[in-house]
Structure prediction request, 330 residues.
Amino acid sequence: MTRVTRRTLLAGASATGALAATAGLAQSDILAQEIDLTGKSILITGCSSGFGRLSAIHLAALGARVFATMRNLPRAEAAELEQHASEHGHDIIVLEIDVTDDASVAEGVARAEQINGGPIDVLINNAGIGITSPVEVQDMEATRLIFETNVFGCHRMARAVLPGMRAQKSGMIFQISSQLGRVIVPYSGHYSATKFALEAMGEQLAYELVPHGIDVTIIEPGGYPTKVWVNRNRYTEELRKRASAIHLAGYPEAVARMGAEDGSGRSADPMDIPRAIARLLSMPPGTRPLRVPVHPGNKPQIPINEATARVQVDWLGETGYGPLIKAVHS
Prediction:
């Protein structure tokens, strides 16, 4: 029997098809399998809505103990999630974590580990925001906020869980990135800049954690109809109102759209992401792909992912870093 590895998913002429098959993770394939996550402890950030909330419910339904975290507790979204867990007999524990705050991250992860009676098995770095504008319009307040959330927040979370994962010599980290972590759409502000950074952070972690038995997978969703658009419009409208006229004047058409984005026209099922995560968790450690595009439509990042994997192996595969590089890509 051929052992499925990252290398077999990425290599050769069949790379595109193999990666797309893994990335698509067809619902029929997933539903046909018995995925049992009993005994897994999973911490997810940003669970008040969207991918985070759906993942908490789905993974708990498959038997996992889920620490569903969000900021600004108490809040209605937390109460609703706790009620759902109670009604369905799911092991969901809602905790407060603000990923932009060092103390909140440290306290939240410590509390999760205390309740769990040991290290967390899986971290899903899901919390993120978008702020849309021409780059020139994006002031330092908006820039700091989006990097604090999308980049520094994920870094804080990884640093908080990794000592425990290393101690148990196992673990899994998911970075919820985006197609826009590999390709760029004009007038998206610094969203791509943060997701590019998250992609680089995730790949470097994947190499460095090989000796510790910890996997890293970067999930790259396309556009989905989640509440992210509501929050994005709020942040973007606040930016537009305080922006300087000297910067706004250069981009009248783009500025007119700021705060008026509409994600409701997207029809893709947001459950694609929690289903993909569940399928990846069901794979043996060490065989999970580094990057997984998830969307039923166009996935423009696939050739970029393939090219960068080949470049890493060709560049560093025969150096002292070779064992780390090849463990991730082969």
Remarks:
- The two ends are 17 Å apart (CA to CA).
- Residues 18-329 form a domain with the Rossmann fold fold (CATH 3.40.50.720).
- Residues 140-168 form the longest helix (29 residues).
- The chain has one domain: 18-329.
